[in-house]
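tool=predict chain=A
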Amino acid sequence: MHADISRLTFRPDRHYSAVIAQQGRVQLDADANEQAAIQLLQARTVAADLIGQHGGPRGATGFRVGSVRGGRELDNLSIGGGRYYVDGIPLDATRPLPGVPVVEDGQQAEDGEAAPEPPATWTYWDQPDAYRDPERPGDRLPAQFPYLVHLKVWERSVTAAEDPLLREVALGSAMPDTAARLKVVWQVLPLAAGQLELTDGASRDEVRTAFDKWARAQAPTARMAARSRRPEHTDEDPCPVPPDAQYRGPENQMYRVEIHDGGTAEDATFKWSRENGSVTFVVDGLDGTWAELASLGGDDKLDLNVGDWVELVDTAYISRGEPLPLLRVEEVDLPGRRVRLSGEPDPSVGRRPGLHPYLRRWDHPSGARHTGGHGPSGRTGRGAPKLRHGALRIEEGGWLPLEDGVLVYFEPGKTYRSGDFWTVPARTATGDVEWPTDAARRPLLRSPDGIEVHYAPLAWVPGEGSPVDLRLSFGPLATPVPAADEGELAAEAAAEEEALAAELAASDSHVTGTDERNGQ
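tool=predict ok
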């Protein structure tokens, strides 16, 4: 998540069930975030255990895929409303109804006809989080049959830069935003039969088996480790550790190492931020290579300087997950709140205000000498960084310096996925980074902290006819209390007769005793 957080403390292997607040203690963002993570894991684990890998409630199963015919040059699919679960994550495909405006007397006649009713369901082209572009051939549905339609599900963070309604305006424009949000993103996407190694005539079970194999192959294999700089033979040398053999930053930092271009090490690149990628600048307009910003930052730690690398993003860019080259800040116009970039941004991003474009600052150096004002690059003895499209090239099997004594290591022979990231907290109190080690204090290799992507098959499209439904459904666990059988009813009646007979006998005995006493 690109949020201004101190660190991530959630560790599923510890099996913590709750975070306990203690009186008189400092409340940290990490504690609240860990509590939310614990509850999410518990809820999703229970749902996945009961439902399975994916499924929807019977009678309200969402994401039914249908063919849309007539009146369009491009093929299209409908996406039925309802709920569905993928690995315990709840999804809702129901299209929201439009609001009802206030209509004053005579307004309808002046404004003309009422707006047309929106479609009842989503379609492949207007689904809310996929941002498919008809102008891109790769976004179109496969021209050849058969093909499979599936769900891709993941989570991402949203801040006030993207959703201004998260900001409390009563705090004033000079105050930073408050809490960020996590958003579940679902996308209905096609998959050609060739990618599944299937041909026409495959059965449902064959399609599901092939898809499961494909989905498992999508997971990246990359692993990374981090440490602060330590001189050779530190364990054997009784002399004090030199000052440059530890984290030397002036402040606590939350480093984020994020994959930019995916693939093997030959093609993959990464970028890093000392603020977890949370330093952003809302874009008010673009004019060639100039970007007009709502603000240039609150201080010299969170501002923009010549030489900084930035990434122009908006909601569609983030949702598509297709990286574009980073751009370098070449000039800063303080009075005009503008920056000149090293190139004109790609036409596909930043041009639509409704998608809330903004610049995200990354902190890796721009070349032989970093000219920004955020501190030294910390690279010694290795020359200028190796860049590709503004991001650093992956160099496996060796320790790569970031800055101030922080180093990272990529395991050789792995594959990388764009957007995957690791977080590395660095602390001045210890002069070290927080990273798991073994008994010999060797840093351990770790898989990315995210992004975790989930998949589920929806439909197999064999041709022009109706798609073959691959969804699963489940019924409610609760059932009506069963009616009693004849034997139970007879036993109940006999018990009632015995109880009534006992009451009568007791009553007769009481009456007889009373009469005898009266006669005496």
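The radius of gyration is 32 Å. DSSP finds six helices and 28 strands in the chain.
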